[in-house]
Design brief:
Blueprint: E1 3-11, E2 15-24, E3 27-37, E4 41-43, E5 46-48, H1 51-66, E6 71-80, E7 85-88, E8 94-96, H2 110-116, H3 119-126, H4 135-145, H5 147-152, E9 155-158, H6 159-168, E10 173-174, H7 175-179, H8 193-199, E11 209-210, E12 214-218, H9 221-227, E13 233-236, H10 241-247, E14 256-260, E15 264-271, H11 278-282, E16 286-289, E17 295-302, H12 305-316, H13 323-331, H14 352-364, H15 371-397, E18 403-407, H16 414-424, E19 427-430, H17 435-447, H18 454-464
Parallel strand pairs: 1-6, 6-13, 10-11, 14-18, 18-19
Antiparallel strand pairs: 1-2, 2-3, 4-5, 7-8, 7-9, 12-13, 14-15, 15-17, 16-17
Helix pairs in contact: 10-17, 13-15, 14-15, 15-16, 17-18
Amino acid sequence: MKKEGYLAVDFGASSGRLILGVLEGNKISTEEIHRFSNDPVKTNDGWYWDYLRLFHELKKGLIKVSQRDDIEVKSIGIDTWGVDICWLDEADKIISSPMHYRDSRTTTIMEEFEEKLDEQQLYMLTGIKKMDFNTIYQIYHDITRNNVIKEHAKSMLFMPDLFGFLLTGEKYNEYSIASTGAILDPFNKQPNNKIFEKLGINNNFINKVVEPGTVIGTLTKKVQEETGLGEIPVVAVGSHDTASAVGGTPLQGDDEAFLICGTWCIMGMELDEAIVTKEAMAYGFSNEGGVENKIRFVKNINGLWLIQQIRKSYIDKGINIEYPDIIDAVSKSKHDYKIDVEDQRFMAPIDMTEEIKGYCNEEYGVELDELGDVARAAYNGLAYHYKETVEGFEKITGKVINTIRMVGGGIQDKFLCSHVEKTLKRQVITGPKEASCFGNLVMQMKAMDKIKTLDEGRKIISNTIE
């Protein structure tokens, strides 16, 4: 007898994968069907998504699962990291390859943009912290600088919307990822017309905004023929990978915060309504859309990128070290210095180790020579910033946070987990590592009436993980 399977397609910052989920009793079993790299492509005129290859890899994964005689695929859901877009013309043809958030084109229009709509005005209209790669800046650049887009663009798709469109032929903008781009009203969840009026742009290229858990269509005949699958429904899940990750975090009360740990770390709370105030803006907090009518009140924080780049700097010098070597060295460190993880010097340095040494020399007058001392300064900086962020959440929401739910690949770093618990003096509960895939899967199951609520899905996730 075939098992009912759900396919989570997750495009991360460096890799993509298709995960098969099967609900068995009160647990979800998962299996990686297909994994592939997700690398932006740099050309003479900028950075681009390699979206055609990614779609090819997606279909390769679908072919693999179609050849299984033990699985009946019930639905497919797609999530990616946020903000990037693709433009279609009136015939629904792609007229410009989607550009990657690493591309610097938006920096050329910031001054002009802010003469029309400054940072505080934009925050008050959207609840989103300014980042120069936000979708609204990409839209303004493309429409004012690219004549092909200006003259021929009729609709805009975020990247998970694009892959959904390629599978089904249906156009839509999923709420959670649209909310991250600073184009929606954080209270009514629809395009904020005031933004586009101030910019002098007609926003008729925005498609219908759909909630996570919406079935948006089925595989086209061509995709069915190519993959061997039938009329499989495609579900708009929490299409922003953070929205899926929060959905996949077993939160149990309003005294909990989540910490999604990876190259970047995202810390936040799940709220019933957005908080759009000058104080929230000063803390750098954003109000992003979540699943099941929730708001992700979040802050993006430089994360394990710091440790990854310390390792890289040693390898570049011909010293081969692994992450356990770094942890071992940190545990032996006698120093307790910390860096400011929000300092721009740590965002894209040529040599992270030398930057940390330089910072500590300037701030504390010390010369850090040992690997453990350098890495300890990075870990201390992360944990201290998490502490400041939690205190900021408490001040603005009026809630007391007793528990931190840590999820994502970074929870494999046991030193980080214990250091966060020690520094924040709050209970830390870890797991799941694959939170975005679990969140993707439970929203599909909800859309297909396999489960009734997100809370039910989270209980199943709790039963599944250690």
